[in-house]
Amino acid sequence: MGRQASMSFSVDNTIEAKVKAKGDTASEFTKVPILQGLNFSGSYNFLADSMKLSTISFGGRTAFFKQKLAINFNGSLDPYQIDRSGAFPRRVDRYLLREGRLARLTSFSFSTGFNFNSSAFEKKREQLEKQQDNPRLSQQQQQDISSILRNPNQFVDFTVPWTLTASYSFNYSNDGINKSNVVNTLNFNGDFSLTPKWKVTYTSGWDFERNTFSTTQFSIFRDLHCWDMSFTWMPFGTFRSYSFNLRVRASMLQDLKLSKRSSLFGNVF
Fold this sequence. Notes:
This protein is mainly β. Helices cover 10% and strands 55% of the residues. It has helices spanning 119-132, 139-150; strands spanning 6-20, 29-45, 56-64, 69-78, 80-83, 90-95, 104-117, 162-173, 181-195, 198-207, 212-213, 217-224, 227-234, 241-248, 257-263, 266-268. Strand 13 and strand 14 form a beta hairpin. The longest helix has 14 residues, at 119-132. It is extended. 2% of the residues are buried.
């Protein structure tokens, strides 16, 4: 509280490699991205009575296999010591440099994901991207296409035979005072078409720390021309339940539907 005189600082790097094109007599090079972003940031408050230097945040991202495999990581570093001489450990105004260390790793997270899609999915995406800039489309149609491109997993497309997305995330936190915490999970979701009118979607994962499945859900969709039918089932876990929906496809008649769902609190119509 009170006056501040802070200086913020940040460093952002892009790391690339130059690779000579094979069989190219002009000796031209192509750039290969290694890290699309590696950054460090923090601040220093000259008027603070103690611990003038903030924690140092860092992060980075990159992608491989034509952007199909994305990797992201970030974390924070604490430059101050932990005093454990008293009854309770506490953070004190002494740099770790006095102990020969730069900083303590207080948090770190890592995530990666890979998309396995049929060729029809890629063709469909290319078609939507081309239609997005079509001046003949209404503003609502352009917004619908943008929403599908941003969140493809939220829409059911019966023309795509199958899709599969796998992601892995690791989170570590340790402030040096409380017990460290680790979250280590593998998640996957996707869908496949049984027939041109039937689609099955699924979402599940594995928690490596608890050695158990994460929230698992199966859904079945049926194209009834002017109507849509769906059945969703969560077979186990805290949110074990099922739901059935039959609704009119037309957007202006979205409220015309029949729903039934079951949960821990009983059946609801």
